[in-house]
Amino acid sequence: MSIRFQCEQCGHTIEVDDHLGGKHGKCKHCGHSVVVPAPKAEEAGPVLRLRPLAGEEPTEGLGKLLAAPPPLNVRAAEADPRIIAEMISEPDAPPLTPGRPNDHYTVTDPHEFTRVHSSSGPPPRWQLFPTLSARWLARNLRTIRNWLYVASVGFLVLVLIGYLFQWKTLLHLGALGVVASNISMLYVGVAYLISLPFKESLGQGLANLLIPFYAIYYWSTRWDRMKTAVYKTVGSFLPIALVGLAYLIYKEAPVVKAAVQEKLPAFEKKIEQATSKLEAKADAALGPIEKGVMPLLKTEPEESARHHRSTPE
Hints:
Mean pLDDT: 72
Number of strands: 6
Radius of gyration: 52 Å
Helix content: 55-70%
Number of helices: 8
Order of helices and strands: EEEEHHEEHHHHHH
Strand content: 5-15%
Structural class: mainly alpha
Shape: elongated
Transmembrane segments: 147-165, 171-194, 201-219, 231-250
Low-confidence stretches: 83-88, 100-107
Keywords: Membrane, Transmembrane, Transmembrane helix
């Protein structure tokens, strides 16, 4: 006895002995893993059925439940699937009819579409080398600038501690570190600004370096991308200015105080002399005015007294 069944993958008919029923195997045609079905009940032996009770006959619905299920009709797969020629075209072939997925269209007429496609593929590696190198350089310069900024902040803290506690060694060390780190940040920032146009293309980078005033046009049209790098580069001058101010105050404060105390008496004497001269000039200017006003001030009380006596009570 043999068992005949079809492969679920390719539809190939397989015939094996009945003792292999329920075991796993592989299709010789496609290599798909299959399970050998068990032999049919008629071939294995007599079929056991439930006998209805006396006087009762099975209904149509019960008969459908007890009946064996119909065999599945599996359509055999095509051994050599046909390749649709419309889906494959040469790079230089004429455009196909509209409807192919992933197409890009350019509107040339309100009722017509022109297919736009490129057959050149990605550019060669050597053409991308300048741009990739500029991106690598800009990324490393940005990392160096960020670490220099962190070092500058640390040295500023040392300057603050040395200034508050009057530790000259710590103040000098912090000031030297701030100046060195921020000057390095300035050079790295300028190099980073130069490398940014090269990230776009080699032509843009060379135009910024060689064509006069082109950098102004480039930066003005791309200011949203350039402003952060420009602000960080220019901001490297601020810590240097703060350190210079701290040094000036720390070094010149005693000298300035002694000079002020030395020149303060002479300055006060000059102020007194200027005040006395100002008072003399004021008296000389107001003297004639007072002489003219005094008679008027004396006649007004006399007239008021006469008016008071002449008024009946």
